[in-house]
TrEMBL record:
Keywords: Cell membrane, Membrane, Transmembrane, Transmembrane helix, Transport. One of its GO terms (cellular component) is plasma membrane. The chain crosses the membrane at residues 12-32, 52-72, 84-106, 112-131, 138-161, 167-188, 200-220, 226-247, 268-291, 303-323, 332-350, 356-376, 397-423, 435-456. It is a multi-pass membrane protein. This is Putative multidrug resistance protein. It is found in: Cell membrane. Residues 14-462 form the Major facilitator superfamily (MFS) profile domain. It comes from Vulgatibacter incomptus. GO terms for molecular function: transmembrane transporter activity.
Length: 466
């Protein structure tokens, strides 16, 4: 497996701080999912209440990623990243001390604030620290940290909850966050404050728009696509988006520099990244229903099958980043990954049709999807981060993370709707097979769209200097 590039030791220390923060935040997200039944029992709450322990973090994270990215550009990478680590650590302690659902949800919102700052600043720190010839490799290694956190979450969470209690899934974050913040404060260079002002009005409107949009995407399966609640929230989201765009055109230093989207490389790569995560989201939410209803797997067996995707992704991401640096090709490798994702999901559609697939086949195909996403992600991230000026690295980093989260949620909503339409709401094995088959085709279609966007965006170039 590729190792961190040689060079200035301080940049490697900065890499370690970013990797630790990335692993911690993704591990925390995946660990909480497995704790939900325990939380419901301990708090005497139903699933509809405790699911907000997950949703509150996700909503805060997604709503603030772009704002956090802009903050990086205004006050500097070190200030935002170290503050994010400290906020995340303090909120983790508050989570561990919570005695009911409401305080835990509030603490998770604060965790999301810290997570947004960390996720937006991390790619900017590494892009600034390492030369373009090593960018893909370094971002790929961070992808390994993401995948490792996702893969380890269920196993680590199950062990901790079984051996100790759910409180301990949060407590380790406290010392880790403070140590990582100290390391980052020493390794990441301080930046002078930008002369540009932070766009408060635009920031508020953007946060409200993304909150409304994410809430719609997470609740549409509960309310129904054509319900009054869904329609009202959609109208509110569109109104907030229009207001945000009007404000952004009138301010001198907007939250999002809309001029970035005139850059074909930036726009195409960002669109491809969004669509690839729609592809992944189309099947990752509904896959557990197929595994339990059609194949009758236990929770432990299901966890083993699902782990194949992040494990393969963790292995492939650093290598694809290294290969893109070596071959000086981000477009070709990323596009190959997107096409491979579409092919794998077409194969999955035929494998699960009428519930004929066994667990080994499904695990192998999920591993293939991990191979595809890993092949795509590192080169594409490198293209996005390399296409902007140094003073816009925070915005680019925030956009990368935002596209990932939003893409997954859109994929979950679309894939879930396809699953329900094909299965007819039945829990029979054949119905689950038909549901996953249609969700897989939806994912394959968006994978082809991602490949088209990646191919159309043009070859990578040196980062603009002005």
């Amino acid at each position: 497996m590729p190792s961190p590039p040689e060079g200035n030791p301080s940049r490697h220390v900065a890499f370690a701080a970013v990797a630790i923060g990335t692993f911690m935040s993704t591990l925390d997200a995946s660990v909480v999912n497995i704790a939900l039944p325990t939380l419901a029992r301990d708090f005497g709450a139903d699933l509809g209440q405790v699911e907000w322990v997950v949703l509150s973090y996700l909503l805060a994270l997604s709503a603030l990623l772009l704002n956090a990215g802009r903050l990086v550009d205004v006050i500097g990478q070190r200030r935002v990243y170290t503050t994010g680590l400290l906020v995340f650590g303090i909120a983790s302690g508050a989570c561990a001390l919570s005695g009911s659902v409401i305080p835990l949800v509030i603490a998770r919102v604060v965790q999301g604030v810290g997570g947004a700052m960390m996720n937006a600043a991390g790619p900017a720190i590494l892009t600034a620290a390492y030369p373009p010839a090593q960018r893909g490799r370094v971002l790929g290694l961070v992808g390994l940290a993401v995948s490792a956190g996702l893969a380890a979450g269920p196993a680590v969470g199950g062990f901790i909850i079984g051996a100790l209690s759910w409180h301990w899934i949060f407590l380790p974050n406290v010392p880790i966050s403070f140590v990582a913040a100290f390391v980052a404060s020493r390794a990441v260079p301080a930046a002078a404050l930008s002369k540009e002002r932070f766009d408060v009005a635009g920031s508020i409107l953007l946060g409200l728009f993304l909150t409304a949009l994410m809430l719609l995407l997470t609740q549409v399966h509960v309310w129904g696509v054509w319900s009054a609640k869904s329609g009202a929230l959609l109208a509110l989201s569109l109104g907030l988006l229009i207001a945000f765009l009007i404000v952004e055109k009138r301010v001198r230093a907007p939250v999002i520099d809309l001029g970035l989207f005139r850059n074909r490389l930036f726009t195409g790569s960002a669109a491809a990244g969004f669509l690839v995560f729609v592809t992944l989201g189309a099947v990752n939410l509904v896959m557990p229903f197929y595994l339990t209803r059609a194949l009758g797997l236990s929770t432990t067996e299901m966890g083993l099958v699902l782990t194949s995707l992040p494990v393969v992704l963790a292995v492939v991401s650093p290598f694809s980043g290294w290969l893109s640096d070596r071959l000086h090709s981000t477009r070709g490798i990323a596009s190959t990954g997107a096409i491979l994702a579409a092919v794998v999901l077409v194969l999955l559609r035929f494998a699960v049709h009428d519930a004929v697939a066994d667990a080994v086949t499904v695990a192998a195909l999920l591993g293939g999807l991990g191979l595809a996403i890993g092949t795509f992600q590192s080169p594409n991230n490198s293209a996005v981060m390399g296409s902007v000026r140094a003073e816009r690295l925070g915005t680019a980093g925030g956009l990368l993370a935002s596209m990932r989260v939003t893409g997954l949620l859109v994929g979950n909503a679309v894939g879930g709707a396809a699953f329900l339409a094909a299965s007819g709401g039945s829990t029979a094995p054949a119905a689950a097979a038909k549901g996953l088959a249609l969700s897989s085709l939806v994912g394959a279609a968006t994978g082809l769209l991602a490949a088209t966007a990646s191919l159309a965006r043009g070859p990578s170039a040196a980062r603009p200097s002005t």
